[in-house]
């Protein structure tokens, strides 16, 4: 974030506050001795910016210009090596952490050296809000532990694929939900490593400044934690000033049936949900009960052999899936084998999400296309990339990568909102770099 006011952001907030530059200047008159225009915003001093944000009642970063997100960021193995830092746990040097590249302010994946010896029971961490995908990188098998009491689900050998023909599918991998405890130790006398991608949580602000204490307490009390979708339907009925008696009368669904649905004693068909949503004019699919594929502690685990079963051709590559969960629609990944020695530029990949790549084998050339210009980066084992949403890119050479994508550049909540947007074509062209005011005469 710079110290310059961005004209588009300022215009956007003038529009939101239903005010104009003229009114703003009138109110600034007692504080500064010049008029601000959309052309002198670069020269505004701290004092003026403070006054503007006070008048608009917004935090400063709402109108300061931000650095443009790059198309990609590349770090060599050596650069990643420099981010190494040790952590201690259970009285020993337990892990070394390394950070992979990502834009400023983004949560980034880490590489972790597993140092806890195989004789020692690995010491659990406290878990964290952010969901994650973790891949065993080798060169040796390690143990992964997920709970105090050990059983088959929560103490596993986190294995490496030993077959040189298919070991571009490097190792076992799993999706980890919020606050799932996890820790690792060696399973042999040799070293082990993991790639762990902890993504950003979309609900972190709810735990922070968004709700006051009272609101948060009430929400927690009211929400059916096993079926929050039903709470939100009931709430949306009440939010719109309907009681269940009215809903029952209008939909001809018996009051008892509706009440039992909200008491979780029975189900409603999708047809019934649609009838209710028609009365309150909301979209029914949001309220459907959800089911997730996961084990008893909420994780979804792929042994490397499970990943091997998913090997398939994709564009100019072979890929194999990494475990993911419908609980985190933005977080997913795959192993990628590149065997394409053509000298031509390859830009056959394009994702709506941003992606992290870690080269695990061979030597590769990364191509990215921006404004019809192709950029090229030579990559070898241990190098890493971050690639932004909707950037055409691809790989040539002979080798393998691990790819993990997430929603920090463009998340599924924004995608849902786009599917709800009226006159999308016009909104897309107008919303970006909007310099139009909301409709007042410029004096
Ligand atoms: Fe973690």
Walk me through this protein's architecture.
- The protein is an alpha+beta fold and 443 residues long.
- The protein has 4 domains: 1-66 and 411-443, lambda repressor-like DNA-binding domains (434 Repressor (Amino-terminal Domain)), CATH 1.10.260.40; 72-198, Jelly Rolls (Sandwich); 228-287, Orthogonal Bundle (434 Repressor (Amino-terminal Domain)); 328-406, Jelly Rolls, CATH 2.60.120.10.
- Helices cover 24% and strands 26% of the residues.
- The chain contains 12 helices and 18 strands.
- It has helices at residues 7-16, 21-28, 46-56, 77-81, 213-222, 228-239, 244-251, 255-262, 270-280, 304-308, 412-420, 424-431; strands at residues 72-75, 85-89, 92-99, 110-114, 132-136, 142-145, 155-158, 173-176, 183-186, 192-198, 300-302, 312-314, 317-322, 332-340, 354-370, 373-380, 384-387, 392-406.
- The strands form 3 sheets. Strands 1, 12, 13, 14, 15, 16, 17 and 18 form an 8-stranded antiparallel sheet that branches. Strands 2-3-4-10-5-8-11 form a 7-stranded antiparallel sheet. A 3-stranded antiparallel sheet has the order 7-6-9, with no helix packed on it.
- It is globular, with a radius of gyration of 26 Å.
- The chain starts with 6 loop residues before the first helix and ends in a 12-residue tail after the last helix.
- The mean pLDDT is 94.
- The structure holds fe (ii) ion.
């Amino acid at each position: 974030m710079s110290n310059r006011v961005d004209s588009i952001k300022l215009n956007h907030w003038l529009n939101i506050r239903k005010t104009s530059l003229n009114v703003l200047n009138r109110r600034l008159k007692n504080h500064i001795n010049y008029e601000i225009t959309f052309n002198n915003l670069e020269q505004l001093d701290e004092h003026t910016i403070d006054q503007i944000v006070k008048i608009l009642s917004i935090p400063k970063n709402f109108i300061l210009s931000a650095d443009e997100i790059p198309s990609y960021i590349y770090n060599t193995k050596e650069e990643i090596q420099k981010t190494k830092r040790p952590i201690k746990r259970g009285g020993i040097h337990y892990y070394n952490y390394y950070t992979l590249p990502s834009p400023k302010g983004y949560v980034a994946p880490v590489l972790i050296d597993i140092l806890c010896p195989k004789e020692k029971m690995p010491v659990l961490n406290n878990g964290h809000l952010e969901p994650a995908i973790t891949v065993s990188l080798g060169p040796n098998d390690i143990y992964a532990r997920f709970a105090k009491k050990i059983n088959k689900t929560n103490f596993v050998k986190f294995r490496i694929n030993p077959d040189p023909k298919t070991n571009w599918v490097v190792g076992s991998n799993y999706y980890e939900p919020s606050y799932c405890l996890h820790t690792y130790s060696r399973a042999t006398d040799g070293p082990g490593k993991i790639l762990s991608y902890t993504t950003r949580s979309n609900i972190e602000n709810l735990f922070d400044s968004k709700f006051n204490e009272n609101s948060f307490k009430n929400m927690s009390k009211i929400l059916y934690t096993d079926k929050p979708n039903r709470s939100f339907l009931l709430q949306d009925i009440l939010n719109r000033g309907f009681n269940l008696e009215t809903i029952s009368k209008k939909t001809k669904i018996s009051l008892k049936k509706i009440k039992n649905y909200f008491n979780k004693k029975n189900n409603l068909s999708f047809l019934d949900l649609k009838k209710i949503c028609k009365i309150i004019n909301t979209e029914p699919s949001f309220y459907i009960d959800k089911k997730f594929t996961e084990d008893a502690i909420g994780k979804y685990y792929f042994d490397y052999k499970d990943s091997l079963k998913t090997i398939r051709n994709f564009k100019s590559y072979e890929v194999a899936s990494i475990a993911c969960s419908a609980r985190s629609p933005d977080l997913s990944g795959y192993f990628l084998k590149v065997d394409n020695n053509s000298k031509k530029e390859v830009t056959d990949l394009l994702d709506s999400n941003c992606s992290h790549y870690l080269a695990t084998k061979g030597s590769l050339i990364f191509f990215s296309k921006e404004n019809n210009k192709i950029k090229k980066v030579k990559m070898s084992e241990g190098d890493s990339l971050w690639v932004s949403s909707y950037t055409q890119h691809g790989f040539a050479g002979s080798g393998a990568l691990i790819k993990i994508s997430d929603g920090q550049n463009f998340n599924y909540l924004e995608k849902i909102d786009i599917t709800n947007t009226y006159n999308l074509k016009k909104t897309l062209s107008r919303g970006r770099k909007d310099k139009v005011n909301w409709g007042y005469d410029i004096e």
